[in-house]
Amino acid sequence: QWVYNILEKKAETERIVHENPDPSNGFVLVPDLKWNQNQLDDLYLVAVVHRREIKSLRDLTAEHLPLLRNVLQEGKEAIAKRFGVPGSQLRIYLHYQPSYYHLHVHFTALGHDAPGSSVERAHLLADVIDNLAMDSTFYQKRALTFPLRADEPLFKKFQEAGKV
């Protein structure tokens, strides 16, 4: 609901750093709740796309390349303009598995060891774009490794199925 409240301007409108209102290729860029915005060392923003049917990395195809390229380019430009941090100093990625199933992209300071920014969970947006440009169904076919804690419900499902 938090995501939809932001997209519908029912909450956190004062926190919006950038918005592209295009319903197909647009997004809202907001500071992540984990970032207090007092220093740039742990800069952390999230781009939430307007399209509601894209739940995760698995849903992406070449059709979404204009959207992904917008998020990458406009997100970097907005952060450079507002915070003075150039795109070369950002880690821009998607999580798999995501913490919520509405496509969003993380922008963190390159030196910040943000939760979920490790290789087991983070997929760099530039790599995602390249992979989809080569093969439109890359993320429908690719085996994706991801970590799970022992107390997570999905881990228990894997255990029950004899997959762990």
TrEMBL record:
<dbReference type="GO" id="GO:0000290">
    <property type="term" value="P:deadenylation-dependent decapping of nuclear-transcribed mRNA"/>
</dbReference>
<dbReference type="InterPro" id="IPR008594">
    <property type="entry name" value="DcpS/DCS2"/>
</dbReference>
<dbReference type="GO" id="GO:0000340">
    <property type="term" value="F:RNA 7-methylguanosine cap binding"/>
</dbReference>
<dbReference type="GO" id="GO:0000932">
    <property type="term" value="C:P-body"/>
</dbReference>
<keyword id="KW-0378">Hydrolase</keyword>
<dbReference type="Pfam" id="PF11969">
    <property type="entry name" value="DcpS_C"/>
</dbReference>
<dbReference type="InterPro" id="IPR019808">
    <property type="entry name" value="Histidine_triad_CS"/>
</dbReference>
<keyword id="KW-0539">Nucleus</keyword>
<protein>
    <recommendedName>
        <fullName>m7GpppX diphosphatase</fullName>
        <ecNumber>3.6.1.59</ecNumber>
    </recommendedName>
</protein>
<comment type="similarity">
    <text>Belongs to the HIT family.</text>
</comment>
<dbReference type="GO" id="GO:0140932">
    <property type="term" value="F:5'-(N(7)-methyl 5'-triphosphoguanosine)-[mRNA] diphosphatase activity"/>
</dbReference>
<dbReference type="InterPro" id="IPR036265">
    <property type="entry name" value="HIT-like_sf"/>
</dbReference>
<dbReference type="GO" id="GO:0005634">
    <property type="term" value="C:nucleus"/>
</dbReference>
